[in-house]
Design brief:
The protein is about 30% helix and about 15% strand. The chain contains five helices and five strands.
Amino acid sequence: LFFRQVRAPRAEEIKAVLFLRHDRIGDMVASTPLFGAMMRLYPGARITVLASERNAPVVVNNPHVDEVIVYSGWSQARELKKRGFDLVVDLFYTYELESACLAWLIHSRYVMGFEIWGRQLFFNIKGPGLALEGNMSQRLLALGRSLGVDVSHAAPEIFLTDAERAWAREHLVA
């Protein structure tokens, strides 16, 4: 497409990143390696995750995420656009176009996601395509590599509060 970029953004161009991950809990867990890796690629950038009410607790305590916004529908696109994200990353690997369209409606300078099932029409940074093999975590790491993210030591992470750890010790005794 004529409006597509040919390169990933340079570090100095990115001050605010928005990840779209407002779906399942397991997919959010699989996405967590990208948050820290992205923070290292774009030092000083603010990392925001648009999450579902159900999966938001997975990243609330993540030190690589500056803000978690709970998704409330299409009307949020206008609010998100005003926030001035430099990069929007659609983490959905699906034939449904809702999240890709939302990513485009935010009107970020850079928008990327998986190049599958027509979703690429909404992106201006080339991401991986349908030929990806592996599980969701491996596919998401491939998406990060498309931006130049070093994912060589990336692994899913969940960060618990002291209260959550105490509850687990008390209730999960074998």
